[in-house]
């Protein structure tokens, strides 16, 4: 007889689910991974995975280090009248990352991406699937923005994050969020609505 | 009697000069560090430092991993008629980093900056002193651009580099340099000449 089997929770279960999820996402990508499969491999009930994490996308966000709920925030920023899209997107980016915890996460994410091919792969998957797809369809499904335009919007945001949270270039660190919105929203707006 | 004293060169001397330089730049910053001081601490003749590296700025570039001669390239991109500045700046950035060696350097630089406070400090020093100062004076010494505007230009470039060389988001990787110039030069141009 053995004590192995489905676990009912406890301190290390959450960590173990995360470890298993990291391996699954890296090996099979986002689409090829299921909560059921992760639960089976971790030896827990799928309900426990949902208890700890907000479904597959929440689990994935946790694995790559982006804040939970980020996909909803992106969707909310993209929705609304086209003329304010640039401002809403820059404000959302700052709201997500501009706290001490957000800064630390951004730093960790950049470090992981730069040093681990697996992390770069996972982040690429997230950015392509979630961020770029949302932005591309900002004006509806019939009027899709070119992929490179969308990637250029993403580049402006992550570049600002890199200088503000990682390299810490003084003018970018000292600016308050609304000053950054004033400088960065117009170029993003013009890319979205030329 | 001892064999210690000034060395005349050899395999490890270059590496040792770099190690000493790394420590000096980190401890005293760019302005507080001299070739003479590095040479003294490394136990070599200052001429040997000049022989291996292109003066203080070349040595500093080598320490932080940016290609030698980058300051001259930035100066050349910034010089010339204002109306083409955005295009020249994006083309220069791509020429510096878009080779296999450049990509590897960019990756290493991002990794170092994300994981070592010292590297972030050195890169911040380089970006502030060299890149941002050149850009701020793009239209002469009397017409200086706001620091935050200049930092936003830098953010667009490093963000593009991060997505093209590190995260490797497909539309940014697959675009040829002139496609990137077409998308990224206009926003940069409008920041420089509103």
UniProtKB/TrEMBL annotation, chains A, B:
HTH tetR-type domain sequence ranges: 11-71
Protein name: AcrR family transcriptional regulator
Organism from which the protein derives: Janibacter cremeus
Pfam families: TetR_C_16, TetR_N
Gene3D superfamilies the record matches: Homeodomain-like (1.10.10.60), Tetracycline Repressor, domain 2 (1.10.357.10)
Keywords from the named record: DNA-binding
PANTHER family the record matches: HTH-TYPE TRANSCRIPTIONAL REGULATOR RUTR, TRANSCRIPTIONAL REGULATORY PROTEIN
GO terms of molecular function: DNA-binding transcription factor activity; transcription cis-regulatory region binding
Residue ranges of the annotated DNA-binding region, renumbered to this chain: 34-53
């Amino acid at each position: 007889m053995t004590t192995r089997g489905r676990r009912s929770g406890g301190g290390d279960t959450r960590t173990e689910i995360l470890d298993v999820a990291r391996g699954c996402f890296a090996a099979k990508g986002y689409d090829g991974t299921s909560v059921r499969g992760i639960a089976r491999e971790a030896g827990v009930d799928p309900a426990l995975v949902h208890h700890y994490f907000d479904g597959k996308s929440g689990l994935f966000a946790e694995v790559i280090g982006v804040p939970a709920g980020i996909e909803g925030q992106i969707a909310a920023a993209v929705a609304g009248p086209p003329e304010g899209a640039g401002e809403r997107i820059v404000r959302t980016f700052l709201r997500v990352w501009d706290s001490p915890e957000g800064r630390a996460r951004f730093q960790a994410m950049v470090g992981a991406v730069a040093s681990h091919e697996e992390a770069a792969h996972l982040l690429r998957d997230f950015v392509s699937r979630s961020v770029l797809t949302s932005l591309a369809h900002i004006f509806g499904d019939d009027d899709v923005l070119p992929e490179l335009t969308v990637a250029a919007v993403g580049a402006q945001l992550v570049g600002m994050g890199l200088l503000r949270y990682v390299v810490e270039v003084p003018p970018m660190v000292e600016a308050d969020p609304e000053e950054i919105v004033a400088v960065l929203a117009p170029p993003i707006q013009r890319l979205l609505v030329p």
